[in-house]
Design goal:
Strand content: 15-25%
Number of strands: 5
Structural class: alpha+beta
Helix content: 25-40%
Order of helices and strands: EHEEHEHE
Number of helices: 3
Radius of gyration: 14 Å
Oligomer: single chain
Bound molecules: zinc ion
Distance between the termini: 38 Å
Length: 135
């Protein structure tokens, strides 16, 4: 099979997971720090399980150019939180199950049957942050 060109990646998600009140507080502080430093779209905080995610979390949607800054920043600053970074290629099943990279703990992907490999590749959502600090 021919290799996939990286042009297939329309955007990325990072899912920031947290377990319990202590990690939740860390995750929310991290969320503010991300908003201060990166032009991204921050999703709402889910305290319940949603979709394929096996732990409470929030999502960050960002464009291809932001990856090279945001992901190293998360490496240095995740404070023990588990993070899934996955591409959006239109194959959401494969994007979550095979093409993602985990920072820290690797969590299961739930409800695989709900994920399709034939969807429209999701572009990065319109940023909802106004960064004032350099990463
Ligand atoms: Zn996602």
């Amino acid at each position: 099979m021919a290799p996939h060109p990286i042009a297939e990646i329309a955007s990325y998600h990072a899912h920031i997971y947290f377990d319990g009140p202590e990690q939740r507080a860390i995750a929310l502080t991290l969320r503010d720090q991300i908003a201060e430093r990166f032009s991204v779209s921050l999703g709402r905080v889910y305290d319940r399980l949603i979709g394929p995610h096996a732990r409470a979390m929030y999502q960050i949607s960002f464009d291809v150019a932001t990856f090279a800054q945001l992901v190293p920043w998360l490496m240095l600053n995740r404070q023990g939180l588990a993070i899934l970074v996955h591409p959006n290629t239109g194959r959401e099943r494969t994007d979550h199950l095979s093409h993602g990279v985990w920072l820290g703990e690797i969590l299961p992907i739930l409800n695989e049957e709900m994920l399709s490999d034939s969807t429209e590749a999701e572009d990065a959502r319109v940023p909802n942050t106004t960064p004032t600090l350099t990463p």
